[in-house]
User: Fold these one by one.
Assistant:
Number 1:
Amino acid sequence: MRIVVSGVNPTDWKARAGAGAGRPTPFPEVVPNQDGAGVVDAVGEGVDPARVGQRVWLYLAAFGNPYGTAAEYSVVPQERAVPLPDGVDFDLGANLGVPALTAHRCLYADGPVDGRTVLVAGGAGAVGHFAIELARAAGATVIATVSSPEKAALATAAGAHHVVNYRSGDPAGRIRAAAPDGVDRIVEVALADNLALDVAVAAPHASIVTYAADAKQPTLTVRDLMTRNLVLRFMMLYTVPPDALARAVADVSAALAAGSLTPLPAHRFTLGDAARAHDAVQGGAVGKVLIDV
Ligand SMILES: NC(=O)c1ccc[n+]([C@@H]2O[C@H](COP(=O)([O-])OP(=O)(O)OC[C@H]3O[C@@H](n4cnc5c(N)ncnc54)[C@H](OP(=O)(O)O)[C@@H]3O)[C@@H](O)[C@H]2O)c1
């Protein structure tokens, strides 16, 4: 791969800062960053030579592989280089990997979402953004929570039908007003903070799918969860079952080709400033941190 744009996610600075410490790595040195977009420069044995020159987006480039995307060139297994449809630029390609595939799994692990109501907590975040876009494109009614007018504008632009500030007033009441029968699927970024809210707005048989781990631990209200047969699901992209990952890649590609996905506002860095790019993500940049290679 010749990398054109590298996308930075929280997982990249966490891994670089030692989140995987204690787990043995077979590599003496690794290049960071899972996501990116570029052009196939050369192919290995068994790969269709016609792929040379193909524009692609990359996912999991640095997973079990020393060649992440913060470099001029990378080497990845062929399935992790996915063709970019005509007219889709490298920036959008570099937005996709971790956030869009995570959003897809959170939405679909418990079945289709068309005709359902989906609550996306933190709708202006990278995963939240693609959860809104994928759910809306699939025919769901989408409610997003945010903490500010700036983030409300992002969630609305992504297509959320209802946007609720979770830090003021009565968020459960406002979500209930938008979804009187309750929400069917909750894509959750802060389980400990939001579990009580989630339980208050969940429909019977709803799934609460959490993909982020912070230091704070949730308090489980088991009877509340049990009486409505709620599902509490945990999701980690690196260990999603292979068939579900393949389906996520196919569905994200289809949504991309259909024009249903958009990039977040970009914060751009040069490759020489890759360390500052990681710091920006760690500092909670709103939007997408990209490295121009
Ligand atoms: N399990 C996985 O495979 C996986 C995959 C992707 C990401 N992640 C993790 O998920 C987290 C988010 O990733 P990201 O790339 O989407 O980050 P991001 O772009 O920084 O977005 C995080 C969003 O969460 C919102 N948020 C924080 N606390 C909240 C709360 N109590 N209620 C509602 N929203 C809240 C933030 O907005 P406000 O602070 O304004 O509310 C922000 O919009 C990171 O910890 C990342 O490591 C895990």
Note: The longest strand covers residues 202-210.
Number 2:
Amino acid sequence: MPDSKTHVLNVFMNRQYPSIVRAEGIYLYDEDGKRYIDSAGGPILCNLGHGVGEIVDALVEQMREVAFVYRLDFTTPGLEEACTKVCEATGGVMDKVFMVSGGSEATEIAIKLARKYHIDNGNPSKYKVISRWLSYHGMTMGALSWSGMTARRAEYDPMLRDFSHIAPAYCYRCWFKRTPDSCDLECAQALENEILCQGPETVAAFIAEPVSGMSLCGAHPRMDYFRRVREICDRYDVLIILDEVMTGFGRTGKWFGFQQFDVIPDILALGKGMGGGYFPVGAAAVSARVADTIARKSGLFAAGFTWAGNPMAAAVVSRTIDYLKEHHLVERCAEKGDYLAKRLEDLKSHPTVGDIRGMGLMRGIEFVKDKRTKEPLEPGLMFWIQLSQEALSRGLFIEASGGCDRGRAGDMVMFGPPFIVTEEQIDEMVGIFDEVLTAVEKRAGF
Ligand SMILES: Cc1ncc(COP(=O)(O)O)c(C=O)c1O
């Protein structure tokens, strides 16, 4: 029954939620003093760990100086500094940043910038966006239209725009029935076919996550996938938007996911860890080619949101970037990510562990009924929900998700702890998860 005391419209409206009153490092504490390990860093965003005083100080200082001015007529030193630091963090691949309040807004602005680029470049017929099935780019109607996460789309489907989706880069369940030996990057080639079918003169951009977030929990393509995508996009004047809302700012063990794949994108969508877990912030960043084309022609980008360019967000972004550098946290993410991957391998002896994948501190597990055939578990079991609930009861917060088998079935979890996590803490979280999995498998009859 619903908790009559709450006026919060919760996701699970009939569930009692633990109330968290304190957070420190990788730990959360509820009002009864129970401790939870935050093995997902919130929804994979608390990259610095909880309770970092310097970030709080930077925010408070900025609020005292200037809490808000409107970007239509003003800039602030903090916004200038943050956007410069973001571009520097990309190694100069990006030249201008439009700061917003989260990931969905970031992909919305990224798509609008792609459209604006083509208009100003003399190709106003280019407006279509191609994305991938089993991707996630946000919850607004636009972002959901180019998302391919079927469960999140389902109820709103009649209200979405008709954008086209190609096959995901999902090696464990390759849609082309290829193996590493027989793979010819058919999943990348599918993009060229789609561009041709849509009409290259109408296609503005391709959007993809370098490493999949919750829709495929850490699945990523072969290392040369994005180079092939780049060649195809260049052939038809289609911009590449990489959705680095989850992968950006160190999560894969490099500053950005595109650096893992040796590809130069045209536009980045950013969010989550950009604010370290301390402030709602996102951004669309564009290359000099895109920015200069717009600046030279119309000199105008009039899309936006009231809170865009928020000085408070900017202060947090600047300090987050400094903190990542000062504490070598991106390098640490790579190192501890390798350790986490090694420890997760120990779970392979479980009868349901089908695949372990990911990069850095973004590691997913996919569960199956039959390891040999990869037959998914019965969707009615709600295995992924059972896992997250059992984990919570044992003091482990973990992100879980379903639908990886074409939206029909499939159960996954993702580990994405703060980058400050120690090897002992990784041992502890994997140890608890081992027990969680044993309990849930037992209930499911394994
Ligand atoms: C890859 C990716 N893009 C976009 C989004 C949407 O971001 P937000 O929830 O901040 O709007 C998410 C959120 O999970 C994400 O993982």
Note: The longest helix spans residues 423-443.
